[in-house]
Structures are given as structure tokens and as C-alpha cells.
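Recall the central idea of this unit: under ordinary conditions, the amino acid sequence of a chain determines the structure it adopts. In this exercise we apply that idea directly, starting from the sequence alone.
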Amino acid sequence: MHTELRILLTLIGVYIPVLVSPGPNFLVVTQVAVSQSRRHAIVTALGVSSASTILAVIAATGVGILMMHFAWLQNVVRIVGGLYLAYVGVKIWRNATNPLTASSDNQQARTLLQSFWYGLTTNLSNPKSLVFFSTMFASLLTTDLPMWVRIAGVCSVSLISTTWNLSVANWFSGQRMRLAFTRAKTPISRVTACVLLVVGVKLLVNA
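Accordingly, the structure predicted from this sequence is:
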């Protein structure tokens, strides 16, 4: 029992710094939060968290280790994810100079389902998430561990990810953050676009 609890605590201790460090997931949640409605930000955050849960389940069942041995499958994930992130980056860059009101009206056309998909696909193609779950997570929660340990690991990741991403969505959708974003919309949008473009291109090059 002590060994299993130590493994779970180690997993949580490693996952939290990986989760809170800025990356594509953080950028898309904050970008939606400050430029769209709180509901869209929350749904996007739930999409990101759902992807973390999916990746955790895959790794906990041993499929993550199998993926490491099938280069073609990894390449498919990289190509699809790279194209999607590059597309989103270009779209954000093109709208960077638009006034926030016009941008918001335009982006409100995005449905809640599309916002969820935005968060889901961003995290599923996030190199940082893929590396963590296919290496550290899979190596800690090996298939020889009791089932309850692996379930607890997946639930811990899901709970921590959901709590963090929903907190980010709520923080950045506040009125003060919106006013700050209005004053610095163009540079913030272009930084976000550049990060997504770089990550997307890097995925395509690696594929």
C-alpha cells in the first residue's frame, strides 16, 4: 500500500508543474476567455481536461507504450495536430488587429461544441502532453500495478487538470482581464499565434 501511494504522490508531484507551465493549452484557454464569453472559455477548458483524461487512460492501459513502438501512428497524430495548430495560429494572427468587439462578434458564431473541440484537439496534439503521458505517466503507472492504482492515477490527473483549466478560464474571463486584453490585444494575439504556429510546424517537421 505504501508503495502504491508513493507512486501516486510522485505522479501528482510531477504532473502539476507540467500542467501549470505555459503552453498551447494555457494559451488557448486564456485567449478564448479574454476574447469570447465565460461559457466558451469554460467549455474550452473542459475540452483540454477531457483530452488529458483520454491520454491518461491510454497510458494507464499500456496503449501509450505501444504507440511509442509504432512510428506511423505517432506521425499521423503529429500531422493532424500540426496542421490544426498551424491553422488556428494563422487564424488568430489574421484577427490580431481587429477591435475586440468585432472579433468577439465574429467568434461568438463558434458553437459551444466547437469550443470544446478546440480545447480537446489542442491538448491531444500538444507535444508536452504527449511526451508526459507516453513516458513519465506510462512508466509510473505500469500494467503490473493493481487496477485501483491506475484508476486513481487517471482520476487524479482528470481532477487536477479540470480544476486548473476551469480556474484559468474563470480568472481570465473577468472584466479586469478583458480590459487589460483590450489594451494589449494585438501583441498578445500575435504571441499566441506564433507559439501555436511554431508548435504546429515543429510537429509537421518531426513527422
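Residues 147-172 form the longest helix (26 residues).
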